[in-house]
Amino acid sequence: MAIKTLGAKAAAALDQELMSTGAFSIDQLMELAGLAVSQAVYRLQPLESGRRILVACGPGNNGGDGLVAARHLRQYGYSPSVFYPKRSKNDLYQVGLPRKSGFHCSSP
């Protein structure tokens, strides 16, 4: 199954365009990206194939997308474990996603 993707530069340009028009905030874009990732996982790795999923998150916006994806995967019935070795200091990532979402979040 082929999946369409954007390169890093194209994705950054799209994010900037969407935010500059005032149509979306960064947290709304993060929610949409995380939802899209979780839907792709659901299509490529159905629950019948296994419920355990590892989500590796860094300190940037992609890491935030990963936290959102893990939350959605949990809601679908998966058992996500989040590896989050370098946590962001940005308040947007401190809203309790790991604590409130019911998945294990670890760092070294």
UniProtKB/TrEMBL annotation:
It is an enzyme of class 5 (isomerase). Residues 11-108 form the YjeF N-terminal domain. Keywords: Isomerase, Metal-binding, NAD, NADP, Nucleotide-binding, Potassium. The keyword Cell membrane does not apply. This is NAD(P)H-hydrate epimerase. It catalyses: (6R)-NADPHX = (6S)-NADPHX; (6R)-NADHX = (6S)-NADHX. The keyword Cytoplasm does not apply. GO terms for cellular component: mitochondrion. It comes from the Eukaryota. One of its GO terms (molecular function) is NAD(P)HX epimerase activity. Pfam families: YjeF_N. Its EC number is 5.1.99.6.
